[in-house]
Amino acid sequence: MSEDQAALLRENGLQVTAQRLAVLRAVSARAHGTAEDVSEIVRADIGAVSRQAVYDALGVLSEKGLIRRIQPAGSSARYEDRVGDNHHHLICRGCGRTVDVDCALGAAPCLTAADDSGYEIDEAEVIYWGRCPDCQN
User: Dihedral through CA 40, CA 41, CA 43, CA 44, nearest 10?
Assistant: First the structure.
């Protein structure tokens, strides 16, 4: 997997670094993790690494579309490696658990705005809020 990730970085014009590879692994291991979650996993994986190096890697990887950054209202940004399919999210109001929800209607943006105001819409971001089964009990 690390060889595939290194090739992915190179294909996107990025230098292959231990930090970037570790961040990719961390995001894969902890879907919807915060930057702090990713930092902890990266430190456990490769040892000492600055928080700024992790933030920089998350920023570059998000910008290149290799990971996805979501920021639910009232929450820290979260990261995932499921990209390119314009899926949505369901977030528990009790514990904050986040799960993926496939688009309700076909391909991206999978929703049509009532008035696009001349914009070319290519993505719809929907967050469903509720209570997970554990928090309901």
Answer: 120
For 57-83, the pLDDT digits (tens) are: 999 999 999 999 999 888 899 999 999
Give all domains of the chain, ordered by start, each with its CATH number: 2-79 (1.10.10.10), 84-137 (3.30.1490.190)
Average pLDDT, the chain: 89
3-state secondary structure of 134: helix
Does the reported pTM lie above 0.90? no
Q: What is the rounded CA–CA span in Å between residue 74 and residue 56?
A: 22
30 vs 41: CA distance, rounded Å: 9
**CB-based burial of residue 7 (10 Å sphere; 0-12 exposed, 13-18 middle, 19+ buried)?**
exposed
Residue 78 C-beta-side C-alpha neighbours within 13 Å: 20
Question: What pLDDT, on a 0 to 100 scale, did the predictor assign at position 102?
Answer: 86
